[in-house]
Design brief:
It is a single chain. The strands form two sheets. The protein has a five-stranded antiparallel sheet with strand order 2-4-5-6-3. It has a two-stranded parallel ribbon with strand order 1-7. Strand 5 and strand 6 form a beta hairpin. The protein is built from four helices and seven strands, in the order H-H-E-E-H-E-E-E-E-E-H. With 215 residues, it is α+β, with helices and mostly antiparallel strands. It has a single domain, classed as Thiol Ester Dehydrase, Chain A (Roll). The protein starts with 25 loop residues before the first helix and ends in an 8-residue tail after the last helix. It is globular, with a radius of gyration of 24 Å. Bound molecules: coenzyme A (COA). Coenzyme A binds next to strand 3, strand 6 and helix 4.
Length: 215
């Protein structure tokens, strides 16, 4: 067989250059990663400018089923904690559009029991962004299905960390705070972060033996 003559490269036969724009396929990206697809403009432009608090807002509704309750027909605390974690993760995901993990949830106090058949409403939003970490506030309300009366079950502050593709902490987009309420939440979140970091440093010192009781 005679070797083929080399094909002369023309505009029609040339391979596309590596830098040629690749069409964006949101549905494919979402399936492949298991995380919400990221539109290119959201991934770059918006994250540079920052994102408003409302972009992270979450409202979740659940009805308390028998499997969610203890022998006194009241919801398990762990069930509420799991819903809090989920709502916080969704708020952080909506803000960062990256993978996120829960680093810490501040102490939880259950103020009111929630009964079987009642409706749980969880409201979550990013309060502040620091570097890779964000504080997400979650408020849990219970609603009597027959009267519509609502009660405050508990509130929680979750520290969520944005991760890069290799699983390392990565800077999250800035939070654009506009209203007085948003500014107050951001300020208070900053105070709580200082307390957490102080506690973390103390615990690290104690773990390495550098902490003496009574100090
Ligand atoms: C959270 C985690 C990513 C932090 O990683 P790390 O190597 O300690 O990284 P860093 O010290 O740089 O912390 C990253 C950010 O988290 C913050 N952070 C971590 N632990 C914190 C704590 N206990 N309190 C407050 N902030 C904390 C840091 O302040 C930092 O925030 P910043 O970037 O805004 O300044 C890592 O500890 C981890 O993967 N933990 C497991 C998370 C997980 O799997 N959760 C699901 C439940 S098991």
């Amino acid at each position: 067989m005679r070797p083929r003559a080399p094909v002369k490269s023309t505009r029609a036969t040339r391979r596309p250059r590596r830098s040629a724009p690749v069409p964006y396929l949101p549905a494919v990206a979402a399936c492949a990663s298991g995380f919400p697809a990221r539109a290119p403009e959201e991934a770059t432009v918006k994250s540079e400018r920052g994102k408003p608090s409302r972009a992270s807002h979450v409202e979740m509704t659940e009805i308390v089923m028998p499997a969610d309750t203890n022998q006194h027909d009241r919801v398990w605390g762990g069930r509420v904690m799991s819903l809090i974690d989920k709502a916080a993760a969704i708020a952080a995901l909506r803000h960062s559009r990256t993978h996120v993990v829960t680093a810490l949830v501040d102490g939880l106090e259950f103020k009111q029991p929630v009964r079987r058949g009642h409706i749980l409403r969880l409201l979550a939003a990013v309060n502040a962004v620091f570097g890779s970490s964000m504080e997400v506030g979650v408020k849990v309300l219970s609603e009597d299905p027959l009267t519509g009366e609502q009660a405050h079950c508990c509130s929680a502050y979750a520290t969520m960390v944005s991760l890069d593709a290799a699983g390392r902490p990565a800077r999250a987009p800035r939070l654009l705070v506009r209203t007085a309420e948003e500014r107050r939440r951001e300020r208070e979140a900053g105070q709580r972060r200082r307390d957490r970091l102080r506690r973390r440093a103390r615990e690290a010192k104690r773990a390495t033996g550098g902490y003496s009781r009574g100090r």
